[in-house]
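note to self: dont lose this again. the chain is below, predicted strucutre after it. 93 aa total, dont forget to put it in the shared folder this time
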Amino acid sequence: MFGLTSQIQRSAVSIPSNIAEGRSRGTRKDFCQFLHIALGSCAELETQIEIARSLSYGDKGMYNEIEQATAEIFRMLRAMLAKLESKTLSAKP
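---
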């Protein structure tokens, strides 16, 4: 349980950390790369939560709330990527 809790915390912290690092890089390409990494961390978090649920850790009601939050994060990251990548494509000759 300790190992899974630790991994969940690292994944959860990794998402905003990668967004911040990518934004500070200064190029759209770098930002997109770090947004993709944040998406990966979000997928990891989703998987770890599913493992915790299957092991019956925590309150069952908590899982629905977390799933809704991770789904919203996925949507926001995908929307940011779509917007940034479309700007990159439209800027090319």
